[in-house]
């Protein structure tokens, strides 16, 4: 009985907050949220709403290959967005592929956030040698484009793994590669905020009463530096999804047995100039809609949390 009451109170506080007021007054944010919910909902409900199972080899029929979208004169209503070279329904492949793209994007962003926040807290609070070493590593990594770092990490990890494990661990390797390429953004932001917070009265009081460093960082400093982290994580989600699509397009991302939107675009690119444009255009449009909606939400959140713009 307590949980519904707490949820109702939390919902009431949210409706009375400045963030909700800012969200309602921003048509761009509302539209982006609707598109993002549509993409996420379609991905999560793919097993139930997809017209076909694109990974069921027994259900594929090569006679259905290269069918155009349903509104074309040669189209088939059973395949609303047409089929690819193997007779797979493009709409179903997009819904299932979006699941992989979102899984990689969310997991990589969560990993980068946790690692960056932890290292940023340590660097900002401890200072000295730890701060110098961690920030110089971050500075060096930031001199390279994130996609190059992800390619390097992915190649090194894949080369160090036994060949028979490549397919089973490919998804986790991509998540690790993208996450490890993005942590400096979070670390530098958290480190700067921690440098400001560590000399405030509440931190000094915590030291006086004998609290340990780890407890002060996690229970006192961390809650006060999470605002910018939330904005960076939202914006970084779109970048992580794009990074996964880029790796998959280059053939070093998720395995073909688990195709993401990037893999579908790469497959369709082989047929783009032969007239089967729908195989790559529709997955590309889905990727653009997903990333654009997330980026617009991130831009709105950044402005909404900026006190100078209120």
Automatic annotation (TrEMBL):
Parts forming coiled coils: none
Keywords: Cell membrane, Membrane, Transmembrane, Transmembrane helix, Transport
Transmembrane segments: 28-50, 100-126, 133-153, 165-183, 221-243, 277-301
Stored PROSITE patterns: ABC_TM1
Domain ABC transmembrane type-1: 98-298
Top-level taxonomic group: Bacteria
PANTHER family: ABC TRANSPORTER PERMEASE PROTEIN, OLIGOPEPTIDE TRANSPORT SYSTEM PERMEASE PROTEIN APPC
Primary location: membrane
Protein family according to the UniProt entry: Belongs to the binding-protein-dependent transport system permease family.
Name of the molecule in the record: ABC transporter permease
Organism, scientific name: Caldovatus aquaticus
């Amino acid at each position: 009985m307590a949980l519904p009451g707490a949820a109702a109170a939390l919902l009431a506080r949210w409706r009375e907050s400045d963030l909700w007021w800012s969200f309602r007054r921003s048509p761009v944010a509302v539209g982006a949220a609707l598109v993002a919910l549509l993409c996420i909902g379609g991905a999560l409900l793919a097993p139930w709403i997809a017209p076909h199972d694109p990974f069921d080899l027994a259900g594929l029929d090569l006679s259905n290959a290269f069918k155009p979208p349903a509104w074309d004169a040669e189209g088939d209503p059973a395949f609303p967005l047409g089929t690819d070279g193997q007779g797979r329904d493009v709409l179903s492949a997009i819904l299932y592929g979006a699941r992989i793209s979102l899984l990689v994007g969310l997991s990589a962003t969560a990993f980068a956030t946790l690692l960056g926040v932890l290292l940023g807290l340590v660097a900002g609070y401890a200072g000295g040698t730890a701060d110098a070493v961690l920030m110089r590593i971050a500075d060096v990594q930031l001199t390279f484009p994130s996609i190059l770092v992800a390619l390097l990490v992915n190649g090194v990890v894949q080369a160090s793994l036994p060949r028979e494990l490549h397919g089973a661990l490919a998804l986790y390797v991509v998540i690790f590669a993208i996450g490890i390429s993005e942590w400096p953004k979070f670390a530098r932001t958290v480190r700067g905020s921690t440098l400001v917070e560590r000399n405030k009265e509440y931190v000094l009081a915590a030291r006086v009463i004998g609290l340990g460093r780890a407890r002060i960082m996690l229970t006192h400093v961390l809650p006060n530096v999470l605002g910018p982290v939330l904005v960076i994580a939202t914006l970084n989600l779109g970048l992580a999804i794009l990074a996964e699509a880029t790796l998959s397009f280059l053939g070093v991302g998720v395995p073909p047995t688990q195709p993401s939107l990037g893999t579908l675009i790469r497959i369709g690119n082989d047929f783009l100039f032969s007239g089967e444009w729908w195989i790559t255009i529709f997955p590309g449009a889905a990727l653009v809609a997903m990333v654009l909606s997330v980026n617009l939400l991130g831009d709105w959140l950044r402005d909404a949390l900026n006190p100078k713009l209120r």
